[in-house]
Amino acid sequence: MSLIITDECINCDVCEPECPNEAIYQGDSIYEIDPDRCTECVGHFDAPQCQQVCPVDCIPLDLNRMETEEQLMAKYEKLIAVG
């Protein structure tokens, strides 16, 4: 599943540059995550980098977007093929 940024986000700007898939962007009021680009860092790292650097722990799994490890890897492979 992809990750989601909750309303607890303080717009500290540390998560966005850590995302290897460029899935994090500034939304209207807080940072947001494009679920079509989020692979939970599968293919890049052992753990989601945005979660690792978030000072307020506001980036949980998006329970509305269930994906297996295999689906996340397929999404990663598609993203790197497109460039």
TrEMBL record:
Query: InterPro entries, from UniProt?
Result: 4Fe4S_Fe-S-bd, 4Fe4S_Fe_S_CS, PSI_iron-sulfur_center, YfhL-like
One Pfam family named in its UniProt record: Fer4_7
Recite the UniProt keywords alphabetically. 4Fe-4S, Iron, Iron-sulfur, Metal-binding
Q: Which domain of life is it from?
A: Bacteria
Ranges for domain 4Fe-4S ferredoxin-type: 1-29, 31-64
**What NCBIfam families does its record include?**
di_4Fe-4S_YfhL
Q: What is this protein called?
A: YfhL family 4Fe-4S dicluster ferredoxin
| Source species of the chain | Zhongshania aquimaris
What does UniProt list as this organism's lineage?
Bacteria, Pseudomonadati, Pseudomonadota, Gammaproteobacteria, Cellvibrionales
